[in-house]
Give the backbone structure.
Amino acid sequence: MSRMVLSAEHAADQVHARLRDAILSGEMRPNHRLVEVELADELGVSRTPVREALLRLRHEGLVLQRKGWVVRDRDPHEVLEYLEARAALESVTASLAATRISEPQLRQLHELLDQMSEPDRSRREVNTLNSRFHALITEASGNAVLTAFTRNTDINYWTFTTPIIFREADDRRVEDDHGRLVQALERRDAAEAERIARAHVEATAEIIARSL
């Protein structure tokens, strides 16, 4: 994890954001140990903001205190519950985004589609772009409450201990879903955007259930 230059006033917020991103991106895997003094040294802060950030992450269910701090693993049942929640949230945000998305945001979605389809992209890079794609649609909904709820269920399959295997047909379906979702947003078709978004998350849940 790269060293950061943090202001004293907002150090805890910045440490929290950096650690949260590292956990949700899979940079810090489940059961990874988080040593306060090491994190403080690595991020260039005292232990106080590190401890405050870890307490917040514990409240969010991302870390545990178990003879020190550790990135929390997820059991299969909990994972599928998160996906049920995401299916509901993403369908609503997509519906709202269809009526509120801006032209610059649509251009950004097309750019992300192009980047995700590049053949030399690693799985990790595609996962990062995928997160940006869905986050942009959530942002385009213009609803801060839904955005906060979505952020709280932002648990992705690439952070699990159990490997999730995507077949070639699965990858094609994901790519097709993304393309059709952007088309629905461009047409301002709220009902179709909602349907595609829900089906997209539910299909991912089926893939994960198969692997788990």
